[in-house]
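Quick log. Single chain, no ligands specified.
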Amino acid sequence: MIKLHNKLITVKIDKVGAEMRSIVCDGREILWQGDKNSWARTAPTLFPFCGGFKNGKYTYGGTEYECAKHGFAKNSEFEVEKKSKKRVTLLLKSNEETLKQYPFEFELRVTFTISHKSVIIEYDVRNKTDGEMYFSIGSHEGYICSGSIENYDLLFPRRESLQNCIVEQGVIGKNTEQITKFTKTLPLLERHLASDSLVFKNMASRSVILRNRTNGERLKIDFPGFNYFVIWSIPGNEYICLEPWAGFPDYIDTTEKIEDRTGIVRLRKKGKKKFMHKITVMEKL
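-> predicted structure:
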């Protein structure tokens, strides 16, 4: 377990999955700590795909591949490339096992930096294949919601009319539902998550604030460069996952070709692409 700390915040990161296991600020744990009876993870890294596949598989160049939902990075052991008191870079390279699931050679670096009361997570994806590469990447942090998620709101910097892309059989169906209409506030309701996630495709905001309505605690997540946003929890549990994605699950009527996958990132030969999101513990209201 890797530990980063300053006088205000301490972060622990597991090399398996480049997964944060703890964010403690002002003596308070921010991250869900996992529960094998509910959701055992805390903050897995999603790569090279976000979401699931129709029939659990996809095709590239006429060959069929099977890959787990959200990809394999979440269960892969990263190596420590660089480390200091307040910053660490973890590296995952393609190998014999990844090539069975994903026919591209790559390097994925995930860098965690702490500054004041913030954690900055940077992703650096590099194409080492002799040709184009297709991928998605995203985060899946779960945040503690004391008592119930229904004690919390999400606050947006821009007014949002949010349409949920309804999940059917683990992929995106043809129907949507209106969740908000021209508002900056989304009260978190368990009934919205009774069947699965809330999946937003056309959200205008690139940051959200998770606010505890009871005591005024606030947490801000900034995610410039991520085009999709997912909210997930298992009803009856005290956590909410707020997930910026550069990628999208399969639609129920997809062709199964990786090139046709909504939101897929196309990287040229020898190309690289960077993404960043930031988690900040704010002062109480």
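The mean pLDDT is 97.
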